[in-house]
Amino acid sequence: MLNAGIWTEQKAVADYQKIINSAKWEPETLAVIQKNLSDEYHHIETLQKHLNA
Predict the structure, then answer these.
(1) Which InterPro entries does the record cross-reference, listed alphabetically (predicted)?
(2) pTM score, two decimals?
């Protein structure tokens, strides 16, 4: 189950990166997207910690 969660979060990271690269964003909008991307990285780290515990 944790591996599936990690895979899902990694997919979200890839998708957010594509979104960021897809257009020239207004700074406020880009900040929101980057915050979401950062959250996804945090989710991956958390799931990996539980997997390795």
Answers:
(1) Ferritin-like, Ferritin-like_SF
(2) 0.88
**At 17, phi and psi to the nearest 5?**
-65, -40
Distance linking the first and last C-alpha atoms of the chain: 14
- Token output for 9: 């979060």
Stated length of the chain: 53
Give me the DSSP letters along 1-53.
-HHHHHHHHHHHHHHHHHHHHTS---HHHHHHHHHHHHHHHHHHHHHHHHHH-
Q: What angle is formed at CA 10 by the lines to CA 7 and CA 16, rounded to 5 degrees?
A: 145
Displacement of CA 39 from its chain's centroid (Å): 6
Place of tokens 């990694």: 10
